Amino acid sequence: MAVREVVFLRIFLVRHGETAWNAKLRFQGHVDVPLSGRGREQARALAVRLEKENFAAAYASDLGRAVETAGILTVPHNLAVQQLTGLREINFGAWEGLTAEQIRARYDKEIRQWWDKPLQTRIPGGETLSEVAARVTAEIRRIVENRPGEQVLVVCHGGPIRTIVASILGMDLNQYWRLRLDNACLSIIDFPAWDRGMLTLFNDCSHLAGGE
Fold first, then answer.
1. Any binding-site annotation on 142?
2. Cα(38)–Cα(18) distance, integer angstroms
C-alpha cells in the first residue's frame, strides 16, 4: 500500500529587529517605535540566512518595526509584504514606554495580576492576553488554511509569537512569558493541519553576531 505524502505549510516566524525601546527594556506595544541601527543590522543578517529559501508569501504586523524588518528580509525574494493588523503586539496601554520598575511603582497591583493571569487581566488602557490570542490565532489560521504545501514568512512581535507557540504546544497561555524570544530571532512551525502544528525551531539567533 502506498504511503500518503503529508503536505504541510511551513511558517518562518520572525520577531522584528531591535528598537531603542527594546534596548532600554521599555514596554512596547502599539506605539510605533522604529528599528534602531542595530535592529536593521540584525534584519540584514537574517536576510542573508534566508535568501535561498523559497517563500510563497510574506506577512507582517502593520507596525513599522515589523514592516521594516519584513521589507529587509524580502528584498532577495522580490515579494510584497502583506500587512495584518491582527498580528500587532499586545496593546500595553498606560504601560507603553515604561520600564518594569516604573510600572511596578505606579501600577503594582495591576502588574502583579497581569504576570499571574495575563489571559484575564486587562492592562490599564490596553488589552487582555485572551484578546491578543484571539486576533493573532485568527490571522495565523487563515494563512494555514489558505496556503497548504507552501513556505511563508511571518514577521511580528514577541507577544504574538509566544502566543502562537504556546497554543500549538498546548501550554497554559498564562505561562506564555516563560518562552524567551530575542530580537530578530527565527522560529519555524510546520502545519500538516491547523490543529497539528509542530514546532521545529525556536528562538534561533545563530545568524546574529555571537548568536545573541
1. no
2. 6
